[in-house]
Design brief:
The chain folds into three domains: 2-111, Trigger factor ribosome-binding domain (Alpha-Beta Plaits, 2-Layer Sandwich), CATH 3.30.70.1050; 151-247, Chitinase A, domain 3, CATH 3.10.50.40; 267-422, Orthogonal Bundle (Trigger factor, domain 2). The strands form three sheets. Strands 6, 7, 8, 9, 10 and 11 form a six-stranded antiparallel sheet that branches. It has a four-stranded antiparallel sheet with strand order 1-2-4-3. It has a two-stranded parallel sheet with strand order 5-12. It has 13 helices and twelve strands. Residues 439-445 have low confidence and may be disordered. 14% of the residues are buried. By secondary structure, it is an alpha+beta fold. Strand 1 (2-9) and strand 2 (12-19) form a beta hairpin. The longest helix is centred in the middle third of the chain and has 35 residues, at 265-299.
């Protein structure tokens, strides 16, 4: 078989394969021999059907079988011969057909990974913010703990509802004079807090007591998730049933002891700060990684095969569906998720290709020592025996762990080579900002 390739684009090749007639003739003979062993033709015993009769009865079947095998073998040989890194199934231009005494020639288009002579890592520049946890963040966490440890009770004596109370209500909703049964509720407990309620509803609930009834007008935005309420003013008729207050504990050492293995309030605050700092550091490392990859892509703007982008989009949608399922959310992802999904998928594919190429370029790989160290780390974290951890990582799990470790090594290399600035990343200059100096110069002239 002879083959040649023609580059249509850096990620799309046309492969032409020619199979000589003598190879076709041999494969046809071999195929007829195999068919003849089991062929059943009236008037002939199995295995004794003449070749000319086999051709008449099974000619199309034999030709199709031989053609399919030769196309598959020819494309495989061409891919190996020309060292093509294909990423999708070949697309035949037209179905090839056998002709007596003539070679079989066929063409196919294949998507390939782009060839990268060298991954450029010079000039990478990123920004990293220092970890600084303000006291207000610690105070916020402390207040959440107070809310969790608050005692719920009925006020004695009864009083009007106020900020932070829990009010149990029945309510009906009327829109354009029509009662919307599906929007109403009975026995709904509502916490009167800014972050939970629309301002109009909160204002209406404040001051109510069990037995009170009130109608509150509420205006909804044009893009509200409920089509019945979009751009409408709805009337909420509310009946107050029960009122509870939340008594919050004093901020002292006893409160700290109730929150866990802490002796003093100061110890609790320090532990909270430590956790916030760890979370901030983790977010900072993730942001730094994103910047490094973005900077690498900008320095190496490579094309990507469309099929890989499509596969990545499908993977992203699957990941989102899994996340929504775990979070107990129903329905499809919102419009915000799909906005720019193709661009995000393309960036992921570019990153994967560049990181893999850089690993090969720098001779970075993962050996048994790397895996053993990771297995030991996992064992220390989980309390499992290292042999059990190693047994848990087989085949796909092991490959995934190797990919993770390889990426960590490559990212460490990029971090070492990049210029890391402290502080916030500056906003890119707009076209108007760049044009302003020229306009000023023109004015001076």
């Amino acid at each position: 078989m002879q083959s040649e390739i023609r580059e249509i684009s850096p990620v799309l090749m046309e492969v032409t394969v020619e199979v000589p007639w003598d190879r076709i003739h041999k494969d046809l003979n071999d195929t007829y021999k195999e068919i003849g062993k089991t062929a059943r033709v009236r008037g002939f015993r199995p295995g004794k059907v003449p070749r000319n009769v086999l051709k008449q009865v099974y000619g199309r079947q034999a030709a199709a079988q031989v053609t399919g095998n030769l196309v598959e073998q020819g494309l495989m040989q061409a891919v190996q011969e020309h060292e093509l890194h294909i990423v999708s199934q070949p697309e035949m231009e037209e179905a090839p057909a056998l002709e007596q005494g003539k070679p079989l020639t066929f063409k196919a288009k294949v998507e390939v990974r782009p060839k990268i002579d060298k991954v450029v890592t010079d000039g990478l520049e990123v920004w990293q913010k220092s970890v600084d946890i303000p006291n207000e963040d610690v105070d916020r966490e402390i207040e959440q703990l107070r809310q969790q440890h608050g005692e719920i009770q009925v006020p004695d004596p009864m009083r009007p509802a106020q900020e932070g109370d829990l009010l149990t209500i029945d309510y009906t909703v009327t829109v354009d004079g029509e009662v919307k049964d599906d929007l109403g509720a009975e026995g709904r407990q509502v916490e009167i807090a800014d972050e939970h309620l629309l301002p109009a509803l909160k204002e209406g609930l404040l001051g109510m007591q069990p037995g009170d009834e009130k109608t509150v007008d509420m205006e909804f935005e044009e893009d509200h998730s409920n089509a019945d309420l979009q751009g409408k003013t709805a009337q909420f008729t509310i009946q107050a049933k029960e009122l509870h207050e939340k008594l919050l504990p004093e901020l002292d050492d006893e409160f700290a002891k109730d929150c866990g293995d802490y002796e003093t309030l100061l110890e609790l605050r320090l532990k909270i700060r430590e956790g916030l700092e760890a979370s901030a550091k983790q977010r900072g490392e993730a942001e730094l990684k994103d910047q490094l990859i973005e900077s690498l892509i900008q320095a190496n703007d490579i094309p990507v095969p469309p099929s890989m982008v499509q596969q990545q989009q499908q993977m992203m949608m699957y990941e989102m569906a899994q996340f929504m399922q775990m979070a107990g959310q129903q329905g499809a992802p919102g419009a915000d998720f799909f906005a720019g999904i193709e661009e995000r998928a393309q960036r992921r594919v570019q990153a994967g290709i560049l990181l893999g190429s850089l690993a090969r370029q720098e001779g970075i790989d993962i050996g048994e020592a790397d895996l053993d160290a990771k297995f030991q780390e996992i064992a220390d974290q989980t309390g499992k025996h290292v042999a059990k951890v190693r047994a848990d990582y087989q085949e796909a799990q092991r490959e995934g762990l190797e990919s993770q470790l390889l990426e960590e090594k490559v990212m460490a290399l990029l971090t070492e080579r990049a210029k890391i600035n402290e502080g916030e990343r500056p906003e890119p200059e707009s076209k108007d900002d760049k044009a302003a100096p020229n306009e000023a110069d023109e004015g001076e002239e």
